[in-house]
């Protein structure tokens, strides 16, 4: 798909479908208003029990269309190989400096999947490194400071600092998730996994309904802030 030179929001996931599970509603709320958003998949999820790299990429492209993304980037790191090497961090920093997002999204640091927690840590480090002027000068790039870093939930839930109403786009969130048919739809040739059991998507929607209830809507998504949330006034 076409890739943008600048986005307002850049959402990182360890695997294709991570952002769709945790923050597709937030992405849709912004893209539907013409705000450019991109996703970066650190890996192709090649070790997943179902699907393969070609299938996952086609599914991710379909999800990208549904979400109205300005770009989707694949860094091609090894699945279960997010080791935080200087080379991995350098690729992530380069993308942040290139796209100059104001807001970055990353998986929450508490999750049952080690790749999700590793991605969370790597994004935090990359956001920090992207703004170091001397480091940027050494690498022949311009520094970029991200205004806000938020963490979204994938397999777990918790106390959210920000809750965003996604009721009006929730049907499209479900469509974007189900674009990854190999992961979420059971079949005779597919292995039974936590993702393709009926309880998984019910859990995701139930969590989004709980957050929605907290703000008086049907569905919402929660984010945790990496730092203080700046405000001029309370009202």
TrEMBL record:
Gene3D superfamilies: LmbE-like (3.40.50.10320)
UniProt cross-references to Pfam families, sorted A to Z: PIG-L
Top-level taxonomic group: Bacteria
InterPro entries referenced in this protein's UniProt entry, alphabetically: Bacillithiol_biosynth_BshB1 (IPR023842), GlcNAc_PI_deacetylase-related (IPR003737), LmbE-like_dom_sf (IPR024078)
PANTHER family: N-ACETYL-ALPHA-D-GLUCOSAMINYL L-MALATE DEACETYLASE 1, N-ACETYLGLUCOSAMINYL-PHOSPHATIDYLINOSITOL DE-N-ACETYLASE-RELATED
NCBIfam families: thiol_BshB1
Protein name: Bacillithiol biosynthesis deacetylase BshB1
Organism: Kroppenstedtia guangzhouensis
Gene expressing this chain: ypjG
């Amino acid at each position: 798909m076409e890739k943008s030179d600048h986005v307002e929001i850049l959402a990182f996931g360890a695997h294709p479908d991570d952002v769709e599970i945790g923050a597709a509603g937030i992405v849709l709320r912004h893209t539907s208003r013409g705000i450019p958003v991109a996703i970066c998949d650190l890996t192709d999820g090649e070790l997943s029990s179902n699907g393969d790299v070609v299938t996952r990429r086609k599914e991710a492209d379909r999800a990208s269309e549904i979400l109205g993304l300005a770009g989707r980037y694949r860094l091609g790191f090894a699945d279960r190989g997010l080791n935080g090497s200087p080379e991995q961090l350098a690729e992530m920093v380069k993308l942040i400096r290139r796209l100059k997002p104001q807001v970055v999204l990353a998986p929450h640091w508490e999750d049952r999947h080690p790749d999700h927690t590793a991605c969370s840590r790597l994004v935090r480090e990359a956001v920090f490194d992207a703004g170091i002027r001397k480091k940027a000068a050494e690498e022949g790039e311009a520094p970029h400071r991200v205004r806000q870093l938020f963490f979204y939930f994938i397999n777990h839930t918790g106390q959210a600092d920000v809750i965003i109403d996604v009721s009006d786009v929730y049907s499209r969130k479900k469509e974007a998730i189900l674009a990854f048919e190999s992961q979420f739809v059971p079949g005779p040739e597919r292995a039974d996994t936590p993702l393709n059991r009926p309880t998984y998507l019910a859990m995701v929607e139930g969590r989004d309904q709980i957050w929605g209830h907290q703000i008086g809507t049907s569905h919402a998504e929660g984010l945790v802030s990496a730092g203080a949330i700046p405000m001029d006034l309370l009202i």
